[in-house]
Amino acid sequence: MQFTKLIPNIFYSDMNVGLQLFVDTLGFVIAYRDDNGEQPFCIIKRDTLVIHLIESHEWAIKDRPQIRLETDDIEAAFALVKETHPELLHPNMPDIRLQPWGALEFALKDKEDVCVIIQQPA
């Protein structure tokens, strides 16, 4: 047996904030969306990654995640974000930096304080 994916749940008070970050900015696509339930729910995908976005004000204020996405071309990822949504660049890491643990990284932060670190092994 092997585990093949980790699929995080990310909670938002407003699902549109998450969609701006992941779909509009990072190029994920909506694979499934249900806005009619008690907690609107969306599955987004890009390449081999899958993320569940859930609209729940209660959980959004309790859980402000920080996730990392690894890329094979951090320069292209940074250029995409800088060109389309520079306001989402995290004020503490708005450019690509080499970290002491050997990763090149930059970060994004949306209006609901979800932080996404984009990294590439150096």
List the helices and strands and how they pair.
Layout: E1 9-12, H1 15-25, E2 29-34, E3 41-46, E4 49-55, H2 57-62, E5 66-70, H3 74-84, E6 97-98, E7 103-109, E8 115-121
Parallel strand pairs: 1-4, 5-8
Antiparallel strand pairs: 2-3, 3-4, 6-7, 7-8
Total helical elements: 3
What value does the average pLDDT take? 95
What percent strand? Answer: 35-45%
Largest sheet, strands/sense/barrel: 4 strands, mixed
Number of strands: 8
Any idea what the shape is?
globular
Terminal residue distance: 31 Å
| Biggest sheet: strand arrangement | 1-4-3-2
Order of helices and strands: EHEEEHEHEEE
Number of domains: 1
CATH domain fold name: 2,3-Dihydroxybiphenyl 1,2-Dioxygenase, domain 1
Structure description:
The protein has 122 residues and is of the alpha/beta class. The protein has a single domain, classed as 2,3-Dihydroxybiphenyl 1,2-Dioxygenase, domain 1 (Roll), CATH 3.10.180. It contains 3 helices and 8 strands. The protein has helices at 15-25, 57-62, 74-84; strands spanning 9-12, 29-34, 41-46, 49-55, 66-70, 97-98, 103-109, 115-121. The strands form 2 sheets. Strands 1-4-3-2 form a 4-stranded mixed beta sheet. A 4-stranded mixed beta sheet has the order 5-8-7-6, with helices on one face. Strand 7 and strand 8 (115-121) form a beta hairpin. The protein is globular and about 45 Å long. The N and C termini lie far apart (31 Å). The mean pLDDT is 95.
